Amino acid sequence: MAAKLDPRHTDRTRAKIRTTALLNRLQGCALGEVEMTSQQIRATEIVLRKSLPDLQGIHTTTDDDGRSYESWIAEIQEINQRATGIS
Description:
Blueprint: H1 7-30, H2 38-51, H3 69-84
Helix pairs in contact: 1-2
């Protein structure tokens, strides 16, 4: 007989299924396939904010000095040659 799943795993799986169902319903509403009241849309939005990460707060910065891809490759090759002793 197969071993039972960890109860936490089962809860996480159920939560993912609920989130997917909400996303599918909201997408159907956006595409005109499903009717939803404004209260249903708002409630779905609230639940999704609690279950999905908000990517709006992610900001990446780089310190590349505006150099081109080719200049970065040339510098990497130069460093690699110095490290390996290849001319």
